[in-house]
Structure formats: C-alpha cells, structure tokens
Amino acid sequence: MQKLVEVRSRMRAVTSIGGVCRTMATVASAKLSRTRERAAGIREYTRRMREIIGRQQRCLEAAGRRPGSISPFLSEREVREVLLLHVASDRGMCGGYNLAVYRVAAAFVAEAQAAGAHVRVVTKGTRGEYYVRRRLPGLDVADAAGWSRAGVTPAEVDRYHEMLTGAFLAGECDEVWCSYTRFLSPVRREPAVVRLLPVKLGEIAGDSALAEEPVGDAVPEHWFYEPSAEAIVTELLGEFVRLQVEDVLLEAFASEQAARMITMEEAVERADRTLHDLRVRYNRLRRESITTDMLGVLYAGRLRGGRHGA
What we know:
The protein has helices spanning 2-62, 67-70, 97-114, 126-135, 154-169, 229-309, and strands spanning 81-87, 118-124, 140-145, 175-185, 188-197. By secondary structure, it is α/β, with parallel strands linked by helices. The longest helix is centred in the last third of the chain and has 81 residues, at 229-309.
C-alpha cells in the first residue's frame, strides 16, 4: 500500500511539471511569433537604409573625403578601449543558450585582451551578468540590466543606443561590439560577435545575407546636400546604429524563446513518457495488491472453515 501511495504522489508531481512545461512552451512560442514579425518588419527598412548610406559614402569617398571626416560614426581609431554588449537571458530552462553565447564572448574578450585592449562589458540579462562576474571576475562590468516582461521595448533600444553611441562619440571606447545569439530558425541558432561601431557597412548584425549584396548603384557626378553631407550621413548612421541595436536585441530575444520552446517541448515529452511508465507500474502494483488481498481473504476463509469442521 505504501508503494501505491508513493507512485500516486509521483504521478501527481510529474503531471504538474508537465503542465507547467507545456504552458511555458506555449508562452515561448507566442513570444517567438511576435518577435519574428517585428524583426521581419525592420529588415527591409534596414536594407534600404544601408543602400542609401552606402551610396552617399561612395560618393563622398569618390570626391576625396576620408570616412572619418564624413562622420564620427565611421572614424577608425587605434583600439585601446573596447566596449562589449553581452546579450543573454534572465532565466534558465532554455538548454545551452546562455552558455553558448558566453563562450563566444569569453573568446572575444581573451582575444581583445591579448591584443592589448582594455575591455568593458555591458550585460543584458541577469544570466549573462552571472556568467561574466563569476567566470571572468577581473572584467569591468560597466552596466547590467535584465529584460522587461514586454521583451524588446523602444525605451530599451533607445537606452542602449544612447549608451553605446555616447561612449563611442565621447572617446570612452574605440570600438563597440556585441555578443548575442543570431536567430536562423526555431531549431537553429548561432552565437556570434559583431561590431557595431565604428560602422562598417559590410557587417550587418543579424542578417549575413545583406553583407553580400552590392551597395548602391553607379556613383553620380554631382550631389547637392542640405544642410550638409556630414549632417545627413551622420544622422542616417545614427539611425542605422539604432536599427542594428534593435535587430540584435530582437534576434537574441527570439533565439531565447526558440531555445526555451524546444527545451520545454522536450521536457513535456519526457514527462509524458515518465507518466506512462508510472501508470504501468501503478497498475501492476495495484493488481499485485488486489491479488494479495484476495489470497489473504481466501486463506482466512479456509482457516475459519477448518476450525468449524474440527
């Protein structure tokens, strides 16, 4: 009887765990769908802006202008200070998602430090901060924040855009990089490290196919700018960097939800298999218990009948 109680208790626990995992998989699937729609919405806009900026940059370079003189977002400097935006998740239960992106970030930090650069890290996601502080204790964490319930919000995008571009334009860092997980499909994700600043149009965060497209058409002989070429290109580049930051956050958030959805679906399958095995075991124990009780009743009846006969 004690074994039956234990099996029933375990069946209730497994059923509860399976229900929680099934709910988490459903929520992750819904968040993934919304995030993919947003990412697809800005992809064409990013492509068109890249073409416009690339065309203007080629025109100005053809006129003998160096990239650094066109806009501060294009200026290449000797790399002494590097700022890394490390994007991870707030929670676990998403397989090896956080560990994979941490490994590429740690490899990048080691490479930058070996080249003589000082690295500062801005972490997005409490799990990312945990990995950085615990496994890279000597690293300078400039800022750390978690995710909001709404996921990627315009306020968060503006905050990171202002933080990263402000540090670069103020000379606090010479390069700005980002380590995140690139979303390829619900079952395929790829941790990557991309450069955000200074802008290099061949490096488009989150869409490697864009880097292979030709930039713009033939260079015209004359362009007229109002108010000035520098002001227009700088404003376009600032918006372009903001789009890259938003794209990085959306890709990372979509990758996290996809990883959690797959992990929870696998957990539901394991819970169903475990529950099936427990039901088989419960039925077997119940049959054994009933058989034992019946044998006890028959044996007691025989003993009683034997006493009356005597």
